[in-house]
Design goal:
Helix 2 crosses helix 4. Helices cover about 65% and strands about 5% of the residues. It is mostly helical.
Length: about 140
């Protein structure tokens, strides 16, 4: 079983997948920072200073020390059940940006790796016996 496991791990696809997951995780952090630190403040400014992460609905009892708090992270850390639709909007925007960037990367890679032009298929050489039969037919037509 250990031998089979080593063979499985040594296959190229598994190593490629591991590298892709690691790079994908790092790329995800970059996109999250781009969204949280660059794009969401701009979008918030356009829509009148909105901070999407501050949109939530409290679903349970709030401890007295946080009774007047409107900080989503503090309420969530305290274990208060909150419906954080603003955080969802932020994650959805992250997803859209990530999907668009991946689309652009795949599109560029496809253009760089253009397919070689296919030569028109040459007619397959016919078998010798068929060629001989054609020659005989053509010769008989000439004699007739």
């Amino acid at each position: 079983m250990v031998k089979e496991f080593k063979a499985f791990i040594a296959r190229g696809n598994v190593l490629d997948l591991a590298v892709a997951v690691i790079i994908g995780a790092a790329f995800g952090k970059i996109v999250t920072s781009l969204t949280d630190d660059v794009l969401m403040p701009i979008i918030g400014r356009i829509f009148g200073g909105l901070d999407f992460s501050s949109y939530f609905v409290v679903l349970g009892k709030v401890p007295e020390q946080l009774a007047h708090s409107s900080d989503y992270a503090a309420l969530k850390k305290a274990g208060v059940p909150v419906f954080g639709y603003g955080a969802f909007v932020t994650q959805f925007v992250n997803f859209l940006i990530l999907a668009f960037i991946i689309f652009l990367i795949v599109r560029a890679a496809n253009r760089l790796m253009s397919k070689p032009e296919e030569k028109p298929a040459e007619p397959a050489a016919e078998p010798a016996d068929i060629a001989l039969l054609r020659e005989i037919r053509d010769e008989l037509k000439k004699r007739a």
